[in-house]
Each structure stands twice: as C-alpha cells, then as structure tokens.
Specification:
mainly alpha, about 90 residues
Length: about 90
C-alpha cells in the first residue's frame, strides 16, 4: 500500500519536470535577449584593440605593396624614376 502511494505521489513530479524547465526558460528569455543585445551593441576594449591592429597591419601591407610596385617600375625605367614619397601609413589619399 505504501509503495503505491509513493508511486502515485512521484508521478506528478516526474510529469511536470519538463514543464518546470520550459517555464524557467520562458521566464528568463527576455533577460538573456537584453543581455545579448547589450553585448552586441557595445565594443569591448579588446575588440577595439584588435580592430586597430588589423587596420595598422592593412595599412602597412598597402605601403609595402606600393613600395614594391614603385621599385619594379624603377627597374624597368631607371631614367624616369623620381625619389619615392609613397604611401604613409595612417594618411588617406584624397
């Protein structure tokens, strides 16, 4: 008799386990959504630093590419080769 009562008492607890988890997920979803939106809207110092380093690397690569092109042209036509005042990293051409 006691076993039957215990089994009958345990059935509702087992049956509602999934419901409790779902209710918890539904209740915490707005909080997680706001946290995710705030994370996407703000830039951390690390992300800012990484972006700055990428920009500097890209500028240095551009300067190196321009210098190589200039040297290649100078090897082809030595008489028409003015001094190199090429691209300076950080300044934009207009």
């Amino acid at each position: 008799m006691r076993r039957v009562v215990l089994m009958l008492a345990a059935v509702p607890l087992l049956a509602t386990g999934g419901c409790v988890r779902t209710a918890w997920n539904v209740a915490t979803m707005p909080v997680r959504a706001v946290g995710k939106a705030a994370d996407l809207a703000t830039t951390s110092p690390r992300e800012r630093d990484e972006k700055y380093v990428r920009q500097q690397r890209k500028q240095a690569e551009r300067e190196e590419r321009e210098r190589r092109d200039y040297e290649r042209e100078c090897r082809k036509r030595r008489d028409a080769c003015p001094p190199y005042n090429g691209y300076v990293a950080g300044l934009r051409e207009r």
